[in-house]
Amino acid sequence: MTQSNIALQLGNITIRQHNGLFSLNDLHKAAGGEEKHQPAFFIRR
After folding, report:
1. What distance in Å separates the CA atoms of residue 44 and residue 14, rounded to the nearest whole number?
2. What is the DSSP string of 5-37?
3. C-alpha span between 45 and 1 (Å, rounded)
4. Cα(25)–Cα(39) distance, rounded to whole angstroms?
5. Disulfide: which of 9, 13, 15, 24 matches 30 by Cβ 3.0-4.6 Å?
6. What counts of helices (H) and strands (E) characterise the chain?
């Protein structure tokens, strides 16, 4: 199976990829970047 890099940009934020996975931090920043919704808190309650 081959991996392809897809260029993704939301607004003025470029979403980076590493090993075919999109950067969750970049997606968070593009979605508005509220501190309470940052990726580090996704699995915390």
Report:
1. 27
2. ---EEETTEEE-EETTEE-HHHHHHHTT--GGG
3. 37
4. 7
5. 13
6. 1, 4
Tell me the C-alpha distance between 33 and 12, whole Å: 13
Instruction: Report the residue count for the chain.
Output: 45
Continuous segment of H or E residues that includes residue 30: helix 24-30
Q: What is the pTM of this model?
A: 0.70
For the record, the structure tokens of 23 come out as 């950067």
Chain-centroid distance, C-alpha 18: 11
CA distance 18 to 44: 24
What are the tens digits of pLDDT across the range 1-45? 566 777 899 989 999 999 889 998 999 899 888 888 887 877 765
